[in-house]
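Human:
I keep going back and forth on a fold encoding question. Comparing notes only helps if you start from a blank page. Show me how you would write down a chain together with its backbone fold. Write it directly below this note and I will take it from there.

Assistant:
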Amino acid sequence: MTAKELRQKYLDFFKSKGHAIISSGSLMPENDPTVLFTTAGMHPLVPYLMGENHPGGRRVVSAQKCVRTGDIDEVGDATHHTFFEMLGNWSFGDYFKQEAISWSWEFLTSPDWLNLDKSRLAVSVFAGDKDAPFDQEAHDIWLSLGVAEERIARLPKKNNGWGPAGLTGPCGPDTEMFYWSGEPDKTPAGFNDDNPLWVEIW
């Protein structure tokens, strides 16, 4: 599958879930003077995440062109690039964790879409700290989808904290998905985020 085909599948999948497909924003942020480049898919959408009405409605999906600078020292390894497209499905006060998690799992594992081997997938959730509690809701949703407890890692904010893209803006705990890129018959029973063969894909 080519990058173009993957991008189109993603957009088509979320269009089937009632999302309006929107164009990529500029690489030069229009609404955040604290950064030089657009570094994430949410960057052009900050006003709508903060409550403004989006002309596309309450559900949108995009393939946002990004230039990453925060982890620039890692560029050049097997998974980090300076320029890339970040695929994102966005809810402006519409759906939340149940739909977002279930749809991500469906897109990755359904034979109608990417059909990835479920036995090679793992996830992480926010472990909790002084600012926010353990993400029990995300954890329980993953369990309900059939993800084994040993494949659900509880990680700190530096791993499972989302945003802001600049100095201020929307932020909070997130949940992430990983694919075992090593030999299929050597997929570990549990998930260890220190093992580079577990590659973050969502």
